[in-house]
Design a protein that fits this description.
Its cofactor is [4Fe-4S] cluster. One of its GO terms (biological process) is porphyrin-containing compound biosynthetic process. One of its GO terms (molecular function) is metal ion binding. Keywords: Iron, Iron-sulfur, Metal-binding, S-adenosyl-L-methionine. It comes from Halobacteriovorax marinus. There is one protein chain. This protein has 373 residues and is α/β, with parallel strands linked by helices. The chain folds into 2 domains: 256 residues, TIM Barrel, CATH 3.20.20.70; 75 residues, Arc Repressor Mutant, subunit A (Orthogonal Bundle), CATH 1.10.10. 38% of the residues lie in helices and 24% in strands. It contains 12 helices and 15 strands. The strands form 3 sheets. A 9-stranded mixed β-sheet has the order 7-8-6-5-4-3-2-1-9, sandwiched between helices. It is globular. The structure holds S-adenosylmethionine and iron/sulfur cluster. S-adenosylmethionine (SAM) binds next to strand 2, strand 4 and strand 5.
Length: 373
């Protein structure tokens, strides 16, 4: 029997210093750090045994890793303790990092120490994702971040002066952007001084009852801000390679590309979600119990998801694989081209540009309406 090797894993660290009021990710502030970190680490041990069984049932196993992503929450709070734990955890389970494994570690300004970072570097971390969000002290406060502008500068200065590989997380569509004239381009200018190899720019999405729900900018403003930022970063040498992601050449997030290419990714930790391609199965870890929920996808759901994910990245993708109605597909793509939504086109093989990314959901509706997916 052919055993498939899964070479990517996401691990979720569910603790933060403060709970930002817009955030919907699973996280807690530990009341008793020692106890709660210990329980979390025990849950990873127990969870890994379940994960191994799940993979086995699906003729799979974890191979030498190409990507490991430690996200949260705020993983940088786990510090030296976390690095020591994960080192032994991987060793004890014969989980090997492949020779060019991309090992990403999320860091929050004001939520790391140099000793902690060095310990993580020693166990293989070679890429950092910095949760900066804004470079305007006023907006940092407005969006309820616990870090201040000094923390931001300290973090950016540290990572750039050490010439580490890092990505910056930023947000647009912030409350009161119009009223207080948020100048996101000036903020990004300041970021670029530090020469990040990758920038993630998310449009703020909010939960029901969000405190600033009446202070969010309108759609027209957000669309303008998104396209302004995209044009600016493209001019400055970044590729807008995914709806919310920009990178220098060859510096895309390999881990996230796995999702966008609908490839298998293992996952561990409360609320983490994994995907087993051949088994057409998604699994989502429960939040308060070491157990997961399995979701079997139908062929139809797999197809829709594959198209949606593939159109998120600006790599050529052949839509004719999904339909026999090539004439209709041609017509729809002609329209998209006329509307200047395409980055590349060769027949039915296309990729979207920033204008297309912005209205991806309505383009999916277009394909669906014309029965092309
Ligand atoms: C889950 S967070 C983890 C990183 C880190 N805890 C932080 O907040 O900086 C990953 C990224 O998702 C983005 N994010 C979180 N909540 C969001 C929301 N409601 N809308 C848009 N982006 C969000 C932020 O840019 C954040 O850096
Ligand atoms: S620090 Fe990040 S994960 Fe934690 S509450 Fe804030 S946005 Fe959410």
């Amino acid at each position: 029997m052919n055993i498939r090797e899964i070479r990517s894993i996401y691990i979720h660290f569910p603790f933060c210093r403060h709970l930002c009021n817009y955030c919907d990710f699973y996280k807690n502030i530990p009341k008793n750090k020692e106890k709660e970190y210990e329980a979390y680490e025990a849950s990873l041990v127990k969870g890994f045994a379940l994960l191994t069984d799940l993979l086995k049932e699906n003729d799979s196993t974890l191979g030498a890793l190409n990507t490991l992503y430690l996200g949260g929450g705020t993983p940088s709070l786990w510090g030296e303790r976390g690095a020591a734990f994960l080192k032994n955890f991987l060793l004890d389970r014969n989980i090997i990092l492949g020779p060019s494994c991309e090992f990403t570690f999320e860091v929050n300004p004001g939520g790391w120490t140099e000793e902690g970072l060095l310990a993580w570097r020693d166990i293989g971390v070679n890429r950092y994702s910095l949760g900066i969000q804004s470079l305007n002290p006023h907006f940092l406060k407005l969006i309820d971040r616990v870090h201040n502008i000094e923390d931001v500068h300290e973090t950016l200065n540290y990572f750039s002066s050490k010439k580490l590989s890092f990505s910056v997380d930023f947000m647009l569509g912030l409350p009161f952007s119009k009223k207080f004239k948020r100048d996101i381009i000036s903020e990004l200018e300041e970021i670029l001084v530090h020469d990040p190899e990758h920038i993630s720019l998310y449009i703020l999405t909010t939960k029901a009852g969000y405190i600033h729900k009446d202070h969010l900018p309108d759609d027209e403003y957000i669309e303008g801000e998104y396209l302004r930022v995209s044009n600016f970063l493209i001019k400055r040498g970044y590729d807008h390679y995914e709806v919310s992601n920009f990178s220098k050449k060859g510096k895309e997030s390999n881990h996230n590309l796995q999702y966008w290419k609908s490839e298998s990714v293992a996952a561990l930790g409360p609320s983490a979600t994994g995907f087993l391609k051949e088994a057409q199965t998604r699994f989502k870890w429960k939040m308060t119990q070491v157990d997961f929920v399995l979701e079997k996808l139908t062929a139809e759901e797999m197809k829709l998801e594959e198209v949606y994910m593939a159109l998120r990245i600006n790599r050529p993708f052949d839509l004719s694989m999904f339909t026999d109605n090539l004439l209709e597909l041609e017509k729809v793509l002609d329209l998209w081209q006329e509307r200047k939504l395409l980055n590349t086109r060769a027949g039915s093989t296309i990729s979207l540009n920033s204008n297309g990314f912005l209205i991806l959901d309505s383009l999916m509706d277009d394909l669906f309406k014309h029965e092309l997916v």
